Amino acid sequence: MILVTTDSIPGREIERVIGLVRGNSVRGAPAQADFHAWLENLVGGEIPEYTKLLAECREQALDRIIADARARGGDAIVGLKITSSEIANGAAEFLAYGTAVKLRA
Where does the chain show beta strands of DSSP type E? Predict the structure, then answer.
């Protein structure tokens, strides 16, 4: 699956636009990791527990958008965007969305 943030793929021709596809994931930090992160935040710097949690959440959102595009017959996703938001204290959502397309062979 080709994923691009642009509206076209250099060297490839879009045969058909399939439509909007999306994938999201919401994750919350376990209490122990959240407490450890809070302690680390007191001294500053990167908080590895949150970095790992958010990376996993983002990858799951991408896996889901790819599955959505494949299920609808897509070869690629153009105009890919990823957004994030805090859903609740200690929980975040990643949303990936774009346009699934079928590429000319």
Answer: 2-3, 14-28, 76-88, 91-103
Strands 14-28 and 91-103 turn out to be antiparallel
DSSP 7-69: SS-TT--EEEEEEEEEEEEEEE--HHHHHHHHHHHHH-S--HHHHHHHHHHHHHHHHHHHHHH
What is the number of structural domains in the chain?
A: 1
CATH of residue 87:
3.30.110.70
Output the pLDDT for position 39.
64
pTM of the predicted model, to two decimals? 0.84
Quick check: 92 and 27 in contact, CB under 8 A? yes
Q: Identify whether 37 is part of a domain.
A: no
Residue 96: give the domain boundaries. 2-28+57-103
